[in-house]
């Protein structure tokens, strides 16, 4: 496009809260075949809250919440924050926590009053040889409702499941419909489990979903999808930064983390997914002015 067309396009974008950082991004966006979206904080609000608490047979809810508030109190994950807030509201107090560590894509572990305690997904329980028993079925039901089930275990025995739900942003479904109408494929990426991801996919109508993606896996998915044409990646988190940098067009949610914003070519100041199709339309209009 001519410098004038670029200037006009960039200005028009800025007026509607679409900050285009490079002329190249404004030119490339018109040819995007696939838009990849992170789930938590991008398609959903990223402010989860606890919906269900199920203690294992013979385990009191108090004991479950006490273990949960202890181990999750050391985690900065949004899921952990939801659990801590809920447990505190129920009067649970943290015990002594030592040796806290995170297991990427699975959860967290620590010694709580000297007892080995873990919190995470079913994969984590299986990896540690914890039998979830009937709670696995309860967890599947929660996941089918779009909730994320978190398992808690101590001394190798399951204590219970806490389900956490995040709401889809009001314009996510409309934005994905608009992209489909423009002939653009949509793919949702998440570290969350298959069932929860599928429930959210149904709710917003994404063409494809890739669940259980480890932090370094997002960039790999972008490279895979790039074989079929130009890819735009939309994300908000630290985890998304490598994928945002790798994509032909990286689009950051304005309310997201600084690292995501720095890694992106385009920033959506209104944090509204409707501005994704709008950015592609802006690029299409910009490119048309030179033909
Ligand atoms: P995402 O940010 O997409 O959820 P993560 O890699 O951070 O991806 O987490 C993947 C999964 O690991 C979560 O969906 C959850 O099941 C589990 N997990 C991560 N952190 C915690 C935690 N602090 N407590 C319990 N489970 C966790
Ligand atoms: Mg996110």
From TrEMBL:
Look up the coiled coil feature and give its residue ranges. Answer: none
Species = Rubneribacter badeniensis
Q: What's the protein here called?
A: Copper-exporting P-type ATPase
Location(s), subcellular: Cell membrane
Top-level taxon of the source organism: Bacteria
Per the record, the similarity remark reads: Belongs to the cation transport ATPase (P-type) (TC 3.A.3) family. Type IB subfamily.
């Amino acid at each position: 496009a001519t410098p004038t067309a670029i200037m006009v396009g960039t200005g028009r974008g800025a007026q509607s809260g679409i900050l285009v950082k490079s002329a190249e991004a404004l030119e490339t966006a018109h040819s995007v075949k696939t838009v990849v979206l992170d789930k938590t904080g991008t398609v959903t609000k990223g402010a989860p809250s606890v919906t269900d608490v199920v203690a294992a047979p013979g385990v009191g809810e108090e004991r479950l919440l006490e273990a949960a508030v202890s181990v999750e109190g050391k985690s900065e994950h949004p899921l952990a924050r939801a659990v801590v807030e809920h447990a505190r509201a129920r009067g649970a107090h943290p015990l002594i926590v030592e040796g806290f560590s995170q297991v990427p894509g699975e959860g967290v572990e620590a010694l709580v009053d000297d007892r080995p305690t873990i919190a995470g997904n079913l994969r984590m329980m299986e990896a540690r040889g914890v039998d979830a028993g009937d709670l696995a079925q309860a967890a599947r039901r929660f996941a089918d409702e779009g909730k994320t089930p978190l398992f808690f275990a101590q001394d190798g025995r399951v204590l219970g499941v806490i389900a956490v739900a995040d709401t889809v942003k009001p314009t996510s479904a409309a934005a994905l419909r608009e992209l489909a109408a423009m002939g653009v494929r949509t793919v949702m990426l998440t570290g969350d489990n298959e069932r929860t991801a599928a429930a959210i996919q149904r709710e917003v109508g994404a063409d494809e979903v890739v669940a259980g993606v480890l932090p370094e896996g997002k960039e790999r998915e972008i490279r895979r999808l790039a074989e079929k044409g130009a890819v735009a990646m939309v994300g908000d988190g630290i985890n998304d930064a490598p994928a945002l940098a790798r994509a032909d067009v990286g689009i950051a949610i304005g309310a997201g983390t600084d690292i995501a914003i720095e890694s992106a070519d385009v920033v959506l100041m209104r944090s509204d997914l409707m501005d994704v199709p709008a950015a592609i339309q802006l690029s299409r209009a910009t490119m048309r002015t030179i033909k």
